[in-house]
């Protein structure tokens, strides 16, 4: 049987043509990148962890009525997803000042924000994913005002769910980013959560110690990234701690 057709390869994932029209197979790589891929490494088991964690969060969102592209997990590194038209924006939700926001505004990292703040950045690695105001988004036709209102509502629902789940296992949800896709049911367009939700796309700090359990471990050379992600997965009961000690599987044809 012929090997699956590659549709797209990004820094952390590969998309292959799915078994049915309108579907894709999303494969999670072990590659870790930071600073727009200026820093790179291969972290054994990272793809397995992100696949399982993204499955956990997407399923949880669907249970509370937040639509996502996730259909089912296929194996340790792959999941079947619905094909969507990705809106070219990263949707960032911040609960505490950290990262670029703290630097941009001269705030101490970890400062609680008065309310969750939703920001948008334009998805373009060559430009460094610059922040963009709503006026740009509407003027350039990336999304309508109604789309933006719906995206903010979706992002805040994701935030409520994620913050609650993380708090329950002693983890502070500092911030996260998601992507939103468009799907059509006949002539009716819907917006759904797409891409992934994992420690790659979140800032997660231990509530008691402030220890970082996200990609900042890699960005800032704070220890072993796989250990940090395994800690998150273990606390959430997603997978046993030794489950990352596997060899990279061959893609199923």
TrEMBL record:
InterPro entries, per the entry: SAICAR_synt/ADE2_N, SAICAR_synt_PurC, SAICAR_synth, SAICAR_synthetase, SAICAR_synthetase_CS
Pathway annotation: Purine metabolism; IMP biosynthesis via de novo pathway; 5-amino-1-(5-phospho-D-ribosyl)imidazole-4-carboxamide from 5-amino-1-(5-phospho-D-ribosyl)imidazole-4-carboxylate: step 1/2
Sorted UniProt keywords: ATP-binding, Ligase, Nucleotide-binding, Purine biosynthesis
Domain (SAICAR synthetase/ADE2 N-terminal): residue spans on this chain: 7-235
Enzyme Commission code: 6.3.2.6
Keyword flag ATP-binding: yes
GO molecular function annotation: phosphoribosylaminoimidazolesuccinocarboxamide synthase activity
Reactions this protein catalyses: 5-amino-1-(5-phospho-D-ribosyl)imidazole-4-carboxylate + L-aspartate + ATP = (2S)-2-[5-amino-1-(5-phospho-beta-D-ribosyl)imidazole-4-carboxamido]succinate + ADP + phosphate + 2 H(+)
Top-tier EC class: ligase
Domain of life: Bacteria
NCBIfam families per UniProt: purC
HAMAP family: SAICAR_synth
UniProt family annotation: Belongs to the SAICAR synthetase family.
Name of the featured protein: Phosphoribosylaminoimidazole-succinocarboxamide synthase
Gene assigned in the entry: purC
């Amino acid at each position: 049987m012929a090997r699956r057709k590659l549709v797209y390869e990004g820094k952390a994932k590969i998309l292959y043509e799915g078994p049915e029209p309108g579907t894709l197979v999303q494969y999670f790589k072990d590659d870790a990148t930071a600073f727009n891929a200026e820093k790179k490494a291969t972290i054994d088991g990272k793809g397995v962890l992100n696949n399982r964690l993204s499955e956990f969060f997407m399923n949880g969102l669907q249970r509370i009525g937040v639509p996502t592209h996730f259909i089912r997990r296929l194996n340790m590194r792959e999941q079947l997803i619905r094909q969507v038209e990705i809106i070219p924006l990263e949707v960032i939700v911040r609960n505490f000042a950290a990262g670029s926001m703290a630097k941009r505004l001269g705030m101490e990292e970890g400062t609680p924000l008065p309310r969750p703040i939703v920001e948008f950045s334009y998805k373009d690695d060559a430009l460094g994913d610059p922040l963009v105001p709503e006026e740009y988004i509407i003027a350039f036709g990336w999304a309508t005002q109604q789309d933006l209102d719906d995206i903010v509502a979706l992002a805040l629902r994701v935030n409520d769910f994620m913050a609650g789940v993380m708090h329950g296992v002693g983890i502070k949800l500092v911030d996260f980013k998601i992507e939103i896709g468009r799907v059509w049911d006949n002539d009716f367009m819907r917006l759904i959560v797409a891409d992934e939700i994992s420690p790659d796309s979140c800032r997660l700090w231990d509530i008691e110690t402030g220890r970082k359990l996200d990609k900042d471990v890699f960005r800032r050379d704070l220890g072993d990234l796989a250990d940090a992600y395994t800690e998150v997965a273990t606390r959430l009961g997603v997978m046993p701690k030794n489950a990352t000690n596997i060899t990279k599987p061959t893609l199923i044809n």
